[in-house]
Specification:
With 300 residues, this protein is of the alpha/beta class. The protein contains twelve helices and nine strands. Pfam families: BcrAD_BadFG (PF01869).
Length: 300
């Protein structure tokens, strides 16, 4: 690779797409943000978001760089689904090089500078990956219907479930249930269902601050839910640390709230992420290019 080459790393999730332009030495030259980039839920939108973010990053740098000069790597939500990734990669891209990986893997590579380590993300959803000896092992990330334990969306669902049990007099009302009822302005279960029947994960995730607020005020019901979530995250980390404890980067909107609730053994493994997912995507691409250039030419 020549010293004048340019790389763009992308962190594309379900709510936004962030791009970071760097030169060959890793200096950040420009950044930009665009819309969602989940290749499973909306491939067309993801494509548009990537192109918009790339163009925005180049524009913010003030440099005259053509798209066909760029090496682009995108860590994308949904890229862990092989069929979706294959279809998405098969599109015509205007870049010199284009590669995809999951947003979880990109974040892990960035957090640990390409070294062995564990990354747990807990925001609207939850998932974990362990990078060891140049390979990834993933757990969780199955979506709210089947998983995402401990996540903001999961906390919201559990809070509503608890409130419905209270409304039906199957358990005692709590500060959490009263706060949830006040938030929605409901008096019975039918009202609650009408308010939440069209909710998606992000909508339930917006209820998580109410759960932590009740927890901080000593609500036992909220504490039970939150400790269940913290226990799941601790179990995830321990399951990935059986062979050899590795540094753990806990990221996402709920990372700071959960950190003091994890096991003492896990606290010793926690570390501050070194870099962002965009930098991790660029690391992945550079390693891919190095391997490709090291391969002997095919005989004809």
């Amino acid at each position: 690779m020549s010293p004048c080459e340019y790389f763009i790393g992308i962190d594309g999730g379900g709510t936004q797409c962030r791009a970071q332009l760097e030169d060959s030495d890793g200096y950040v030259l420009g950044t930009a943000t665009s819309g969602p980039a989940n290749i499973v839920s909306n491939k067309v939108q993801a494509t548009q978001s990537i192109l918009m973010a790339v163009n925005g990053a180049v524009e913010s740098s003030g440099l005259s760089i053509a798209l066909n000069e760029l090496h682009v790597a995108a860590g994308l939500a949904g890229a862990n689904v092989a069929a979706a990734k294959t279809t998405f990669d098969a599109q015509h891209w205007p870049f010199r090089t284009f590669a995809t990986l999951s947003d979880l893997h990109a974040a892990c590579l960035g957090a640990h500078k390409g070294e062995d380590g564990i990354l747990v993300i807990c925001g609207t959803g939850s998932a974990a990956t362990c990078y060891r000896e140049a390979g990834f092992s993933d757990k969780g990330g199955y979506g709210l219907t089947l998983g995402d334990n401990g996540s903001g969306a999961w906390l919201g669902v559990e809070a509503v479930r608890h409130t419905l049990l209270c409304i039906d007099a199957l358990t005692s009302h709590s500060l959490l249930s009263r706060n949830i009822m006040t938030h929605f302005g409901v008096v019975d279960g039918v009202d609650m269902i009408e308010k939440t029947m069209h909710f998606c994960a992000s909508d339930f995730g917006k209820l998580s601050p109410l759960v932590f607020a009740a927890f901080n005020e000593g609500c036992e019901a909220a504490a039970s839910i939150i400790h269940l979530g913290a226990g799941y995250l601790s179990q995830l980390i321990r399951s990935m640390s059986q062979d050899r404890p590795l540094p753990v980067a806990l990221v996402g909107g709920l990372a700071e709230s959960y950190q003091p609730l994890l096991g003492k053994d896990i606290s010793k493994q926690l570390c501050v992420p070194a870099h962002n997912a965009q930098k991790g995507a660029i690391h992945y691409l550079k390693e891919t290019l190095l391997k490709r250039n090291a391969e002997p030419p095919l005989k004809t």
